[in-house]
């Protein structure tokens, strides 16, 4: 089971968009800057809401999805009814990203340093499916997914913009690539770590190597509205697929806050 049918069975309209550079997304011009800084991905989702005439929605996500949902909840709370955010508060602060982490934490991020090199970009282009499957296994050590499960997601990587978007995102986070100056004001607001006042449930996977599971204390002060935190035992990074029932339950619960 996955999250979408669980929520649809409870009467929800569920939209699972591809982020730019993935799936069926595309740019209108080959000369357009393949920009993946955090604010433009959030603006893509705002544009989607506008196109679908959705004024307000419950947002839930993990990884890039958590970051994007956090940004919308922080900057456009009128569009966010409630929030489920895996790994808590993920809005990027590029100044803090200049500071080293303990070696065990840096090890989990090995690929972002790989992407900082041209060798890494070429290697990702040539081996993108093998690369993604390796990451899945490393960050979700107890998830015994089969090839069919992986292949359904991997189809979204077969996009000519996948590699430039992913590589730009990680280089931008590390300050190795520039964003678009048109979004400087938004990025300045995000760099100030704005609070999130909408009802929120944060989720940690106990075995996620990126962020040690706990009680959410590291980011608790960023959520100023109704709030709950849950740690999922035996679960790794990909919470929606590893624990779809728990993720769907969080969406149902936060919608009632």
UniProtKB/TrEMBL annotation:
Instruction: Tell me which domain of life the UniProt entry assigns to the organism this sequence originates from.
Output: Bacteria
Q: Which Pfam families match?
A: Abhydrolase_1
Q: What GO biological process terms are annotated to this protein in UniProt?
A: acylglycerol catabolic process
Q: Name one GO molecular function term.
A: monoacylglycerol lipase activity
Q: Which Gene Ontology cellular component annotation is one that this UniProt entry carries?
A: membrane
Q: Which InterPro entries match?
A: AB_hydrolase_1, AB_hydrolase_fold, AB_hydrolase_sf, Epox_hydrolase-like
What this protein is called in its record is: AB hydrolase-1 domain-containing protein
Instruction: Indicate the segments forming the AB hydrolase-1 domain, all copies.
Output: 2-224
Tell me the SUPFAM superfamilies matching this sequence: alpha/beta-Hydrolases
